[in-house]
Amino acid sequence: MIDYQISAMSKFLKIIGVNNPKDESNSFILYIVLFSLVVTTALMVFLGLSFCKNWAYVLSNFFIVVLALTAVGFLLGFIFGIPRSVADRFNKTMNKFDTENQSDQPYADNTNLEEISDWITKIIVGLALIKFRAIFSYISLGATQIAESFPTSQNMTVFSHGMIYFYFTLGFLWGYFWTRTRFGNMLVKSKIDRDQIMRIANENLSAYATPSDGPRVMENDSLFSLESLLLNKPILYNDDTQKGRWGSKSENKGFRIQTKVTAVAQGLFELLIEVTAFEPDSNFKTDIIVFLDRTFPTNTLYLKPTGRTVSVKVIAYEAFTIGALVNNEVELELDLQRQQGYPKEFYY
């Protein structure tokens, strides 16, 4: 019986967003929920004793109002508390991460929810400042309507005002702290787990991290510099770092880049990247440089040509854009999101 009670309590704590009650941030959420439960129970007893004849109707009406106020408060708290990912700290001018302020645990790739949260937050704050007095008049109107829903001749307006402020505030605090702690940790954990799997699966890519043909001499007798080339190709999309950098063509001057995608595990896919010289007069003269997204542990690969097709296998969790440089000058680009025939889970 005791084990069952402990198990039930553990499940309850997880539902309200408390994984470790001893943790300070989690304990604050627990205090909010327990305090609201105590107050709600006291109000239920008060209403039950005050409206003995219509107690079922009164309590059901009370619960509906409480749930509505708490839900609205929780939603606003969620919007205000959405964490910001390290993608927003990407320095577009310097074309690199701001490592001084970068979090040790990045957690999100898609920042649409953050942007929406930012817009709504600014709109709400702006309207609250402009319509400050009008907001209180709307609250008073709502309190009056709630008070009229109770079957009594007594004035319940003060009671209704208290319900609005109390449960809305509790819902807001619960939503805000749950989002900052529980939701943020969920994003961090999913990102870390996914990156660790990708890092382990792509350890073999380190073998392609350095060129096999030594320094490259261009036709004008100057040395080829990949660093100089990349400086002239700024990253245009933070969530797809090679997109738009390599000419947006998968075929160019007799060379082609293509990819075969196979699902290997839940949420993971094996990519066979192939660069082919398909024209008779097209030949590989130097290592082919393949550019992957920056989420890969090794995102610049030097592939030594051994025939008319070179290939490499990588593991990825979603579509991205691949770039390639052939013979120091021919640029190829393949946007996997725009290709057809891949597993539907591969597309974002």
Description:
It is a single chain. This protein is α+β, with helices and mostly antiparallel strands. The protein folds into two domains: 2-201, no CATH class; 211-346, Immunoglobulin-like. It is built from seven helices and ten strands. The protein has a four-stranded antiparallel beta sheet with strand order 3-4-5-8, with no helix packed on it. A hairpin with a 2-residue loop joins strand 4 and strand 5 (268-277). The two termini are 47 Å apart.
Q: Mean pLDDT across all residues, rounded? A: 76
**Percent in helix:** 40-55%
Question: Approximately how much beta-strand content do the residues carry?
Answer: 15-25%
Radius of gyration: 29 Å
The structure class reads: alpha+beta
Summarize the helix and strand pattern as letters. Answer: HHHEEHHHHEEEEEEEE
SS elements, strand count:
10
Distance between the termini: 47 Å
Individual helix count: 7
Characterize the biggest β-sheet: 4 strands, antiparallel
Count of the domains:
2
Strand order in space, largest sheet: 3-4-5-8
Shape: elongated
Unreliable stretches (pLDDT < 50, length at least 5) are 1-6, 87-108, 217-222
Task: Offer a few descriptive terms.
four-stranded antiparallel sheet, 10 strands, Immunoglobulin-like, alpha+beta, 7 helices, 45% helix, 16% strand, 348 residues
List the helices and strands and how they pair.
Layout: H1 2-15, H2 24-50, H3 55-81, E1 90-91, E2 96-97, H4 112-130, H5 132-148, H6 157-201, H7 226-231, E3 251-252, E4 255-265, E5 268-277, E6 288-291, E7 300-303, E8 309-316, E9 321-326, E10 330-335
Antiparallel strand pairs: 1-2, 3-4, 4-5, 5-8, 6-7, 6-9, 9-10
Helix pairs in contact: 2-3, 2-6, 3-6, 5-6
